[in-house]
Amino acid sequence: MKRAALVVLLIACRGGVSEDPPVHLIHNMDTQEKARPYRKDTSGLFPNGRFMQAPPEGTVAVGQLNDDELYEDGWDLNPVGLDGGATGRPDFTFKFPPQVQLPDGGIDEELVTRGQLRYGVYCTPCHGVTGNGQGLVAQKAFDGGMRLEVPPRDLLSQAAKDLPIGKIYASMKVGVNNGNMPSYATQIPTHDRWAIAAYVRRMQGVGFDGKPPEPPPDVNVVSVALGRFYYKNRGCNACHSLDGTKVVGPSWKGIWGQTHKTSGGDVVVDEAYIRESILDPKAKVVDGFAPVMPPPNPPIDDTGIKSLALFIKELKE
Ligand code: HEC
Ligand code: HEC
Question: What is the pTM of this model?
Fold first, then answer.
């Protein structure tokens, strides 16, 4: 008898395939009544027989109040006008909400870096790496295939620079002009929208503090100030840092007089090389970098080029 039981046991372990449900001797809590979305409520708990329930009227789920118009919508309910007084008319904010500011009111560089990454993911296809509206989708949009109603906005244009920061934020939350640009609310959470908005400001060379951009220095006189102005105003700062950090292009810190290895051989960084770099960026591509530098558009005149060279030279000291 004992032997027979052993044989049966061994046969049971042969690994055969069976259509029958496994024998489940001790259930513990393996099978139990539980709520699953889209399943019928068999527990009788909910009168309408569904597990998925709308929140009771007048209630808000924890953490989903979203009643902060400034942070959630980019709206300033009580904006200050140019004369310093309240306008009494809610409008898009020119200031970043406190949630994304440092205690001193500044913007954390980490937020800008985060924004740059997210911009690269979601915005470059249409607005391009530099923000000039010449992304791949934009280039292909009008020759069959992909379809866009209007071209993506040049985010470096004066009009885009003049946009309140809240409007840039809102473009991602609700889209632009009734779907010409779709909403990215589901892909990009609130905090990241502000990070991207901060990076758009950085590309635009517009400060974070909501003040109108600085007036240009005399554009007919070569000066360090004019060089610095073009650096910010023409978006060089989107790719070139002044503090040694490598962004898209090489930092300008201390490069004056250095010898650089390029696709055109060794060159000394002087005014002639800087002029060529600006007018014909692909002529000599610095080793270790991609040939992605755009020639400035609109072009920078000779006074501007000399000023940029002077500005770069001054960074040496
Ligand atoms: C599918 C292409 C596409 C993508 C991706 C896209 N945009 Fe746009 N964007 C557009 C188009 C098209 C317009 C111009 C709409 C118009 O003029 O009606 C526009 C306009 C804008 C404007 C101008 C808003 C205004 O009120 O004038 C801003 C700011 C902007 N986009 C920011 C962004 C940011 C930031 C991202 C990334 C999160 C992004 N866009 C991603 C197509 C796109
Ligand atoms: C989209 C990013 C981008 C922008 C915007 C940009 N550059 Fe560049 N730049 C680069 C890259 C990448 C390189 C290195 C590759 C090369 O030489 O083309 C470079 C190289 C240079 C160099 C040579 C630097 C060296 O170390 O040898 C100069 C000078 C320069 N850029 C000037 C400018 C000026 C002036 C502007 C603004 C008008 C500007 N760039 C805007 C990406 C950019």
Answer: 0.53
